[in-house]
Amino acid sequence: MPTYPAEPFRIKVVEPIRSLNRGQRVSALQAAGYNIFGLRSDEVYIDLLTDSGTGAMSDRQWAAMMLGDESYAGARSFYRLKEAVDAIFGFRHFVPAHQGRAAENILAKVLLKPGQFVPSNTHFDTTEGNILDRGGRPVNLTIPEAADASNLHPFKGNMDLAGLEAFIDRVGAENIPLGMMTVTNNSVGGQPVSLENLRQASAIYKRHRIPFFIDACRYAENAYFIKQREPECAQLSVREIARQMFALADGATMSAKKNGIVNMGGFLAMNDDELFQRACNELILREGFPTYGGLAGRDLDAMAVGLWEALDEEYLAYQVGQVGYLAQRLLEMGFPVIQPPGGHAVYIDAGAFLPHIARDEFPGLALAIELYLEGGVRAVEIGSLAFARKDEESGEMVHPLMELVRLAIPRRTYTQAHMDYVAETAGRIAARRKEIHGYRITYEPRLMRHFTARFEPL
Ligand code: F0G
After folding, report:
1. 7: how many CB neighbours lie within 10 A of its CB?
2. Which class in CATH covers the domain with range 22-51+312-457?
3. What is the DSSP letter of 227?
4. Residue 410: pLDDT above 90?
5. Regarding the domain delimited by 59-309, which CATH topology (the fold level of the hierarchy) does it fall under?
6. Is the CB of 100 under 6 A from ligand 1?
7. How far apart are CA 346 and CA 323, in angstroms?
8. What is the distance in A from the centroid of ligand 1 to the CA of 169?
9. Is the pLDDT assigned to residue 390 strictly greater than 90?
């Protein structure tokens, strides 16, 4: 049996959860239009929809919230957060934002003009959405190893550097107002990016005078993988590695709902003084005054503490270990899971698991639905439903690399017995996979359709 380090904490507060019977789950799903985002949380037993904002805060974070200073301007809470952000990330400036996509929105507003390109290893859907919404064109340059679920490349989140060079040559650096890197690379399996790859991408961007922003949501898990897998970093602390990562960039967007272990919060950091000024003005319009950015003072305090806790290496060993444990159990049951497992979620290659379902009939959605019906487990599709879109030039559908289902592990929230329950639920589905069918869309919005689309079984 696989194992992982026992929780480096004990449980002080509990939140009851309960399991519906199968008939109740069928009705709940039909009422939700077969979209698992439409379910009530009370209709879910183990909720692995996301690791974002769903983690358990520590006693220290809750205590810090009591110290929240709710002054409109210049609150003590802001300065406590500033101390943490400055020490960990090391950029000259930052503004709080209520979550990652708010930071992305501000960044896109201040840097991007219609028709311009933004390359990345792989943009997350909100980043892609924010770029598209400003008339920009997101471009993903993932290394080819990322498309092979069983390839054991240690840094499958890496950017295709030759591809980046060729892309810049093709469209011209003047049409690229910023370049990005997502760490860890959520959309291809929560896969880490190596320090070496970040260094080289940074050098390319620098040579072409393209500002480089890191999407830093899961930077601590990424730094932990660098320590494990990049020999030159084995002796460094995760914090030191993080400093080296951010020293390569001109700024970062952060959803602290991941590696800040808060329920809500984020920020946008940058070095450039003039850009900071414009970001502040934009922030005031959309999020709030630059010392609170759409958050309560108590939220800023919880974030200030959580950012440090997410760098704790014992905690990281447990978090990454729990993800690896579930991945291993699913693998043993015959599920094609992305290997090596990433830091926040297990990804099943639903396209390989359900080869009889066509990509435009959403094998990932079909598997996510089965997990819910079988055991009340909520997972999310990260495949053609979330990411397929029409290419502007050719008019053809561009599909993502894979049809994935993600089982995200909320931080410090579920136990090993919960992981075993999930594995056993999945095991029962594996036994009858040939009977599973695809779905058809009955409603979809213009952008980010997976959140609110409705479906019917085929
Ligand atoms: N970047 C990445 C890599 C993300 O995974 C997310 C959110 C964001 C940006 C946006 O942050 O939600 O705070 O606005 N990911 C969540 C997820 C939603 O489930 O993976 P946000």
Report:
1. 15
2. alpha beta
3. H
4. yes
5. Aspartate Aminotransferase; domain 2 (3.40.640)
6. yes
7. 6
8. 30
9. no
